[in-house]
Amino acid sequence: MATTATVHFERKPVFTLEMPFGQQMQIINHRFEPRWRSAVAEVTILSGLHGDELDGGLVCHMLSQFLQRLGNNWKLNGIVNILPNVNPLSGNLGQRFVPMMGSDLNRNFPGNHIGFESERLAAAIFGVTSQSLLCIDIHSSNNFLEELPQTRIVNEPAVVDWAATLDLDLIWTHSAHNWISGTIAQSLYERNINALVIEVGTGSRLNRLYCERVFRGILQCLRSLGVLTNGTPVSPSNALRANESNVTYLNAESGGLFVPASGLKLGDHLRRGARLGQIIDPLFGQETDVLVASSGVLFTLRVNPVVYAGSLVARILQT
Ligand SMILES: [Zn+2]
């Protein structure tokens, strides 16, 4: 526990699981509360629901360090919970799913305090987030793709407004009936709690620049809520808007190695017909161009080169 003149900080265990061979696993909450005044709102930021997604851990570290050393021109007016690693069972092994059960923790919400270990983990995490006005759930992509920093949310005007405060590159909305059941975002939404899902970078990797961008975005979100203030106005959002009808998926037509075009990077504006890259067959020397099907902004790109016919190579926001 540590306390500054204006901020009370505590590392609070919110869940303990006895391990089969005598050790304990804990979920730790970095909880920040304003001293001397009542909180305007409570916000929870969490990462690591999938144990092989690591960017959120760095973002949470940056946020916690920032709040522990809050500068004189900053004020904390609300409660901030930071859960840097909510799935240590998977994170310790660098695995996506909960070991033994093989369960996706992000399909177990709202959880069950007397259920299997995944359900108990989910119930403990849900217990913290369900006290909040807003929850920010940080994910990386899988090990095959790289994602431009983006917010994925249900297409509700109020939630879109919350997402805009993050000012990431992209807001990608989906309709409520296309939501995957059992995710923390869906479970919170059913209880009228706003949830923003951030996707950034690549699984099993850290992208420092993207993490710094998400860190700044969350600070801006907290300032928009009034949870943090520093006396300067919040910048308007420039996020691109994707939905279920303006995203083009580029899939491999054949198996081989995907070789992106020289200099290609996320955020590039691409013209219809341009060459995104090639799929090469090193055994027989075949080369197949991957062409851009519609003009737009590249926001997902394959980083693991091994593809089968049908593998996702890129996603483009049509412009
Ligand atoms: Zn994930």
Count of helical regions: 6
Order of helices and strands: EEEEHEEHHEEHEHEHEEEEEEEEEE
Enumerate the spans where pLDDT stays under 50 for 5 or more consecutive residues: none
Radius of gyration: 21 Å
Bound molecules: zinc ion
Question: How many structural domains can be distinguished in the coordinates?
Answer: 2
Morphology: globular
**Number of strand elements:** 20
% residues in beta strands: 35-45%
Structural class: alpha+beta
Share of residues in helices: 10-25%
Distance between the termini: 50 Å
CATH class of the largest domain: Alpha Beta
- The name CATH uses for the topology of the largest domain is Aminopeptidase
What's the CATH architecture name of the largest domain?
3-Layer(aba) Sandwich
CATH superfamily of the largest domain: Zn peptidases
* Largest sheet data: 14 strands, mixed
Structure commentary:
Strands 1, 2, 3, 4, 6, 7, 8, 9, 10, 12, 13, 15, 18 and 20 form a 14-stranded mixed β-sheet that branches. Strands 17-16-14-19 form a four-stranded antiparallel β-sheet, with no helix packed on it. Helix 4 packs across helix 6. It is an alpha+beta fold and 319 residues long. The radius of gyration is 21 Å and the shape is globular. The longest helix is centred in the C-terminal third of the chain and has 18 residues, at 208-225. The protein has helices at residues 55-68, 88-91, 117-129, 157-166, 184-189, 208-225, and strands spanning 2-3, 7-18, 24-34, 42-47, 75-76, 79-83, 134-140, 145-154, 170-174, 194-201, 228-229, 240-242, 247-251, 256-260, 269-270, 275-281, 286-291, 296-302, 306-307, 312-318. 42% of the residues are buried. The chain has two domains: 2-241, Aminopeptidase (3-Layer(aba) Sandwich), CATH 3.40.630; 246-318, OB fold (Dihydrolipoamide Acetyltransferase, E2P), CATH 2.40.50. It has six helices and 20 strands. Helix content is 20%, strand content 36%. The mean pLDDT is 95. Bound molecules: zinc ion. Residues 49-50, 53, 139 line the site of zinc ion.
